[in-house]
Design brief:
It is built from seven helices and 25 strands. By secondary structure, it is of the alpha+beta class. It has two domains: about 140 residues, Alpha Horseshoe (Serine Threonine Protein Phosphatase 5, Tetratricopeptide repeat); about 300 residues, Neuraminidase, CATH 2.120.10.30. The strands form six sheets. The chain has a five-stranded antiparallel sheet, with no helix packed on it.
């Protein structure tokens, strides 16, 4: 559930045990003894019956408003059970303990967060005033603050124009060694030139019927560009009668010529295909993140192969020759064995948190993830175990960089990773209108070295550390 401990932001894995050891020794000096087991309260018993995190959040907010810190503790403990990857819940739990002067429990929760790479300004949080002034507190303030510092060797590769484009997808054309960018507003795919100049490559028209470009995947050996597209209000040229329709569109990678369309079957529901992936064998999968369903192209059709209402969403997908991987923003990483169709949860070490993954790519036995809602926002390389079902090692690539707003999707280009460092989507409302007072900015695209830190096969300290 937790990620690498970061000293000056992302400390070496060799050093990761050191802060935890110091913290453990400091905790041993805290005089408060462990509390004996007790019977659950009526509030706890009622909370245990609720499986919807949103409902528990509402209850927790009511407890906080009434300053019922013990009940807030119980509610956030339930949230941690329901969403173990979400560090923001654990931070609230630490605050609930601090309000009750539970030093040991508050410190333990904060140390877990610090060792996972989270960054919070606890020194300015009045909720923690009861637990300040100790050696452990000083350690926590220092290291949680260190986790927020800029880290990474990536560079700003492009500044895409600031117009009303809403660039939401990137792909890499290895034949022409060129970056492709997809616009949800225009329903276009552009070739990215020098200084971020955009050249029309694929355009929505009556022949192809393309809608908003949500995601893209390249299959170079078969000269194919696949576009996951949806008729959403953000698409400028949308026919309202088409709202709720979605599909996968195939174009020739070499020319942009339209080849085929594979639409989600009409079933009376709204669909948004927001993620797409292609296996090395050429199998194409697309995910409806809202409906929590995954489809596969079979002939002229899209066949549903995964549907799980227990997921909260599907944000990103990637494929190896053995597995299809997909991310749930709240619940972590999952996979589908391509040979057997067996689903699995990707195992994570105790110091790896998989919260808020938006972008997901596969590279040489690694998963590259963009954690958009993680404080601080970051890009990580997760080395998979031999069976592809667990995480063996981990390396932060870019953390809290200068141009980071809300980083989202990315694409692998050889040993480089290009990713959108600041989506403009939050500046639009759910109806596709620009929010009052919002100003569109250039969309920065970062380029990161996927081999960073691989010389020793582990996490490397910051330069100059």
């Amino acid at each position: 559930m937790k990620l690498v401990s970061l000293q000056r932001l992302a400390a070496a894995a060799a050093f990761a045990a050191m802060p935890a050891l110091v913290a453990a020794q400091a905790l041993n000096a805290v005089p408060a003894p462990p509390r004996p087991p007790r019977e659950p309260t009526e509030v706890e018993r009622e909370l245990a019956k609720i499986d919807q995190a949103a409902r528990v959040e509402q209850i927790a907010a009511q407890f906080a408003q009434r300053k019922e810190w013990d009940n807030l503790q119980y509610a956030t403990e339930r949230l941690v059970q329901l969403r173990p990857h979400n560090g923001n819940y654990r931070y609230t739990l630490a605050a609930a303990h601090a309000m009750q002067d539970h030093k040991r429990e508050a410190y333990d929760a904060l140390i877990r967060l610090q060792n996972s790479g989270y960054a919070y300004d606890v020194a300015k949080d009045e909720r923690f005033k009861n637990v300040q002034g100790t050696e452990v507190w000083g350690y926590l303030v220092q290291n949680l603050d260190a986790n927020r510092k800029d880290f990474g060797k990536g560079t700003l590769a492009y500044q895409l124009p600031a117009g009303d484009l809403l660039i939401e997808a990137l792909a890499w054309d290895p034949a022409r060694k060129q970056l492709l960018a997809g616009s949800a507003r225009e329903g276009k795919v552009y070739r990215v030139g020098q200084n971020g100049a955009l050249e029309d490559y694929v355009t929505a028209d009556a022949k192809n019927g393309l809608w908003a470009v949500m995601d893209m995947a390249v299959d170079a050996p078969r000269d194919a560009l696949y576009v996951a597209s949806a008729a959403i209000p953000h698409f400028k040229h949308a026919n309202k009668a088409h709202y709720g329709r979605a599909g996968v569109f195939r174009f020739k990678l070499s020319s942009g010529e339209f080849v085929s369309k594979h639409e989600v079957p009409l079933d009376g529901r709204n669909h948004i295909l927001s993620s797409i992936a292609v296996t090395p064998k050429g199998d194409v999968f697309a995910a409806d993140g809202i409906a929590r369903e995954i489809y596969k192209i079979e002939g002229a059709n899209l066949r549903p192969i995964v549907s799980n209402p227990k997921l909260t969403t599907i944000r990103g997908m990637a494929a190896s020759d053995k597995a299809l991987y997909f991310a749930d923003y709240d619940l972590g990483l999952f996979g589908l064995d391509l040979a057997t169709g067996t689903p699995f949860e990707v195992r994570a070490p105790g110091n790896v948190t998989l919260y808020s993954i938006d972008g997901l790519s596969y590279w040489n036995g690694n998963l590259v993830v963009v954690q958009a809602g993680f404080p601080p926002k970051r890009v990580m390389r997760l080395t998979l175990t031999a069976d592809g079902r667990g995480i063996a090692k981990f390396q932060p690539l870019e953390v809290n960089r200068e141009k980071f707003g809300t980083p989202t999707r990315g694409t692998v280009a050889g040993d480089r990773y290009y990713f959108l460092a600041n989506t403009q989507k939050p500046k639009y409302d759910s109806h596709g209108f620009l929010r009052t007072g919002a100003e569109l900015e250039p969309t920065p695209v970062y380029s990161s070295d996927l081999k960073f830190g691989t010389d020793e096969g582990t996490v490397l300290p910051l330069p100059g550390k």
